[in-house]
Amino acid sequence: MAVLNLKSREIQAKIVYYGPGRSGKTTNLEFIHNNYTKQVAGKMISIDTHGDRTLFFDFLPLGLGKIKGCEIKAQLYTVPGQVQYRATRELVLKGVDGVIFVADSLKVRREKNMLSLKDLHQSLKKMGIDIRRIPLVLQYNKRDLEEQGFPLMSVEKMDHELNRQLKVPSFTASALTGEGVGNTLSRVMKLTLQHLQKEFQWAQGK
Amino acid sequence: MNFGEKVKSLIKEAELYKSQGLLNEALDAYKNVQTLIESTQNIKNKDSLLKKIADKIDLLYAKMETEFATPNPPKVSEDARSVIKEMITEDDPEAKGSSSLAGAVALAKFGQYDQAIEELTRLLSYDSLRLDAAKNIVWCWLQQNEVDKALGRVKQWMSGNVLTLSEVNSVRAYFEELVQKSGLDARISRDKIQKDLEPESQVDDEEILDINSTRFNLPRGPRKGEAVELEVSFQAGKYLKMLVPKKDQKLIEGLSVGDQLNGMIFYSPMAIFSGIGYVSSKVTINAGPKKGDYSLEIKILSIQT
Fold first, then answer.
1. What is the per-residue pLDDT across A85-129, written as a single tens digit (0 to 9) for each?
2. Does the beta-carbon distance from B16 to A149 stay under 8 Å?
């Protein structure tokens, strides 16, 4: 849950990057860490396996400046995507304010995307959160791989399969080159701050 | 697409997936190549091609074994530990005590047991957190299959004054429940745990007279505080066995293994004396004429002369 300090006019939101293994969640954070240096407010922490798979999570703190006199901070987390780390994913999701679901555009990962989205839905439900009520943005990652000969799903197909019912903002991206990374993050932050405004009226009177 | 082009294309696909870390997908592609070669007739170098693909598949399996293995939780840096503690702490930031407990529990959940135990041990000095901290220490040891260490800690609390009597009882019950649930009691018998947890008696078996009956107040249950008198059916030194008929359900509900019975009166043909007892066993009789009744065992911890 966001930390709101009305005395010092500070908001800290927790944003979690969710998605199947190898879909590019860590790469999103790495790009932000390496390219948004002004906003990066601390060390990026990664706890991964020898095979570079996220074991626990990645963490990156950001300072996003002032809005309506309030200092906005974000803590970005990724979850381990591998199926067997469900318990860890649920721990990382605890207190989440906004979610970016990173889907893999490769055709062969179609089913994994759907299973991971279902897993997100169930984990949130377990925490008493309705997936349709939490700020959520979809990112269709790895669009650049088409040039290398990988068969990709069309954006329309991905939207149809993953976003038909949710109807949340979606972005195409290539986390490796940075395309779409910033847009995805700023949209989820916007949605999160709007959501927190509804809940806590933090911008009242300013 | 002719045979050669098909093979090249499938191998390229496999290599691409491998480069993306998608090992299962790479494996599928290699297996498709294998099937294609096997099902095609009149290939000159069929065996050597199949051998090359089989080698690639073996390498892939080896890679998968290391990548998909669930490693033991690594020891993480101080920075990472801070993030873990902060991440799970949802409590009011002003409530420093409870957020410390949540942080320590978070460390344990991420497998950072040594640090978690260290922090939980520190929290034992806070009245409101002591019981939860103690239970979580036990949980940390059992998560690492260290039954003896958990047991040792419980015994230490039982003989010391860090925890109150009711806290000790609660921790002990929690420990037994965890051991039972985890299946660890298959390795160490429940009786052994129970015996290990029993407080030491200050009396020698030889000192104790034959006891006919005993009187004590029920420490819990619907008849809490009520004095009851039970006949001793069997005595082995400081251990007294009593039978409680099944119709006295409310009486038996007033006693739990681990209860300490202060101010017990012991009736012997030669003298009446008082002392402290400990409920060391309470079981339902499953066979014979007394089936359904309860067998209660009390250990005499001390006698007052």
1. 888 899 999 999 999 999 999 999 999 999 999 999 999 999 999
2. yes
| Total number of domains in chain B | 3
Residue B43: which domain range? 3-64
User: Does a structural domain hold residue B195?
Assistant: no
CB-based contact B7:B37 (threshold 8 Å):
yes
List residues of chain B with CB under 8 Å from any CB of chain A: 12, 16-17, 20-22, 25, 28, 63, 66-68, 70-71, 73-74, 76-77, 79-80, 83-84, 87-88, 90, 93, 106, 109-110
The DSSP call for residue B21 is: T
| ipTM for the whole complex | 0.81
Q: Least CB-CB distance to B79: which of A43, A87, A95?
A: A43
Tell whether pTM > 0.80.
Answer: no
Residue B42, SS3 per DSSP: coil
Side chain identity at residue A72, one-letter code:
I
Q: Which residues of B touch A43 (CB under 8 A)?
A: 79
* Chain B contact set for A112 (CB, 8 A): none
Q: Return the residue matching tokens 């082009």.
A: B5
Look at A49 and B110 and tell me if their CB atoms are within 8 Å: no
* Same domain, residue pair B169 and B250: no
CA–CA separation, B255 and B298 (whole Å)? 10
Distance, CA of B168 to CA of B197 (rounded, Å): 10
Cβ contacts of B84 on chain A, cutoff 8 Å: 56
In A, minimum Cα distance to B106 occurs at: A91
Give the whole-angstrom CA distance, residue A138 versus residue A121: 13
Hey, CA dihedral for B257, B261, B265, B271, is it positive or negative?
Answer: positive
Encode pLDDT of B111-143 as tens digits: 899 999 999 999 998 988 999 999 999 999 998
Residue A22 touches partner B, C-beta closer than 8 Å: yes
DSSP state of A106: B
Out of A90-99, B133-142, B151-160, B243-252, least confident range: B151-160
CA angle A76, B18, A174 (to 5 degrees): 40
My answer on whether B86 and B162 are in the same domain is yes
pLDDT score at A141: 97
Dihedral of alpha carbons A130, A133, A134, A135, sign: positive
Residues B111 and B50 in one domain: no
